[in-house]
Design goal:
The chain has 147 residues and is an alpha/beta fold. The chain has one domain. Helix content is 37%, strand content 18%. The protein is built from 4 helices and 8 strands; from the N terminus they run ββαβαββββααβ. The chain has helices at residues 28-36, 52-68, 85-95, 99-116, and strands spanning 2-6, 22-25, 42-45, 71-72, 75-76, 79-80, 83-84, 120-124. Strands 3-2-1-8 form a 4-stranded parallel sheet, sandwiched between helices. The chain has a two-stranded antiparallel ribbon with strand order 4-5. Strands 6-7 form a two-stranded antiparallel sheet. The longest helix has 18 residues, at 99-116. The chain starts with a strand and ends in a 23-residue tail after the last strand. The model has no long low-confidence stretch (mean pLDDT 81).
């Protein structure tokens, strides 16, 4: 059994698919595409893997790391001249580095591997296979995996 981890909507994997394979879509557009085109195997949207309790735990872990990464039992590691640079930059984890997205994707992959125990794994998380054009300077509206 093959597991396909697909985020991009113009991914061409049709020749690789078998009836027993599983496609896990990380974006709604490929999910609709595979459903509409009648793939006979199992197609899941990422949201189907998570319960309300799972989301609570994902948010708790993400928020805890983002707000406390610079703190240890010995104190705050990032203080210089009385200013905690860790505290100042902690907001960047959620906005610039999209930590919530990365944690969610990682947990979805872990759950899929545990649930399906695939023989082979294929993925498309590239920036090149999106239907929508992403501008180089998009003011942070889209999640770019190149940065």
């Amino acid at each position: 059994m093959k597991l396909f981890l697909i985020e991009n909507d113009i991914t061409d994997i049709w020749k690789l698919l078998g009836e027993e394979d599983v496609i896990l879509c990380f974006n709604y557009l490929p999910y609709l595409l595979f459903l509409k085109n009648g793939f006979g195997g199992r197609v899941l949207f990422i949201e189907e893997l998570f319960s309300r309790a799972d989301y609570h735990e994902l948010h708790r872990i993400t928020d805890s790391f983002a707000s406390k990464w610079y703190q240890t039992d010995d104190g705050v590691l990032s203080v210089h001249n009385g200013i905690s640079y860790g505290e100042i930059t902690s907001i960047m984890f959620n906005r610039t580095y999209m930590m919530g997205v990365l944690v969610k994707y990682g947990e979805a992959i872990r759950k899929a591997l545990t649930l399906f125990s695939p023989d082979d794994i294929y993925c498309d998380f590239s920036d090149e296979h999106n239907f929508f054009h992403l501008y180089l300077d998009d003011k942070g509206r889209f999640f770019s995996k190149e940065n």
